[in-house]
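Technical annex B. To support the medicinal chemistry partners, we prepared a structural model of the target in complex with protoporphyrin IX containing FE, based solely on the information shown next.
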Amino acid sequence: MTVASELRQYPFQPFTGDLDEELLQMVETDSVTRVILPDGRPCWLVLGYEDCCTVLADPRFSRLISGETAAPGADAPRSLVMDGAPHACVRRVASRAFTARRMDSYRPRVQRLVDQLVDAMIAGGKPADLVSGLVAPLPMLVVCDVLGIPASDHHRFYGWLEGINSVVSYGLAQAVDSQQALRDYLGEQLVAKRAAPADDLLSIWLGEQQSSALTDEELVELAVGVLVGGIEINSTSTGLRALFQHPEQLDKLRAEPEKLAASATDEILRYTTVSAMFRVVVMAGDIELGGETIRAGDSVMALPWFGNRDGRIYPDPNVFDIERVPGSPHLTFGFGPHYCLGAALGKMQIELSLATLLRRLPNLAPAIPLDELPWRHDRINCGIASFPVTW
Ligand code: HEM
C-alpha cells in the first residue's frame, strides 16, 4: 500500500463547479483510492455507485467523529447523527412528520414564498443576485415555516446557523456556542408549542412524545438536525449554471416548464455538484471494497456525485439530459438509513424556483461569464457564492 507521505492532497484542484476529470475517469476502474484530506488526514475516496452505496449503508462505516473510539454512552441524547439503534429510533419519530402527503401539502406555501422572493428580486431591478435574492433565503424560510418557528424570530438565529454551518471560517468554538444558543432557543419553542400546539413539525413530535419516549433534549437535537439539513439548497444555482451551459436543454425547459421541471430537477441533482467534499466516516471494522482492504479506524469519504456518473448505472453518464428516464435513483440525497429526510421538500423548492424563474423571466440570462461565478470554500456544502443575472 502507498505510504501516507506519498499520497496526493485532495481536492486535486480548487473546486469551481465541475467534477474533476481525472476522478471521472476513475469511477469505473479505480473506485477506491487513498488521498490526504485538507486537514492532513489520510482518507479513502470512494467513487463508484455501488461502492458509494456500501459506504452510505453498511453499519461498519460509522459516523463517530474521527478520533472518538467509542459510541456515546447510553445516557447521551439520541440524535440523527448517531449510528444504529439510537439513530433508527429518532428517525422513526422524525419520519412521522415527513410523510409524502404532508410534504405535498406544503406546495402552495413554498410557491408563495418563491413568488414573494422573485417579486422582490424583479422590483430591485437588474442585474440581480439570484443567490441573495432567492437561493439563500428560500430554504431558511421554508424550513422555519414547516418546523413552526415564528418568522419574526428569523433574525435571531441567522447568525447561529451561519456559525454552525461555517466551522471552517468561524472555528469550532463559535460553532459550539452557536449550537448552544440555537438549542436554548428551540427548547423555548418546545415549551411554547406544548402550551399552544399548531400544525407544524415541532407540535407533531411533541404530540407523539408519550409513545415515542424522546426527551425534550432529543426533540431539540432532532429540530437542530432538520434545521441544519434544510437551510442550504444550492442546486437551483448549480442547475441554472448547467442549463445556461446547455442552451438546447434550457430551450426545452423554457418551452414546457411545468411539464419538465420535475425531471429537470432530478437530472440537475444527478449531474451537478455543489462541493468537492462529503461526510467523512470512520471504519468500525475491516472491509474489502473496490479491491482494497480498508482497516478499522481508517477514514472514508464516499463522493455521491461521482457515483451519479457511473456508466454501469447510467447510460451516457456525463450527458446532461433533463428528460432522462431515471433507472436507479441518484445518490445526491444519500442512500440507506440516513437518506435525506427532506428530499421531497428540497426537490420541491428547486422545481418551483426553476419553473417560476423561467415562466416569469423568459429572457433570464447570466450577467457575467459562467466561468467567473464565485464559489464558496468555507463550508462542506459550498455552492455558488453569488450569481448575477439579467432578464
Ligand atoms: C436539494 C436539497 C437537499 C440535499 C441535496 C440534501 C442532501 C442530503 C444528504 C446527502 C443527506 C445524507 C447525509 C449522510 O448520509 O450523512 C441528507 C440528510 C438529511 N437531510 Fe437533506 N438534503 C436536502 C434538503 C433537505 C431539507 C429541505 C431538509 C429538511 C427540511 C433536509 C433534512 C435532512 C436531514 C434531517 C437529514 C439527516 C437524516 C438522517 O441522518 O437520518 N434535507 N440530506
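Notes passed to the chemistry partners:
The domain at 4-136+232-390 is CATH 1.10.630.10 (Cytochrome p450).
The chain has 18 helices and eleven strands.
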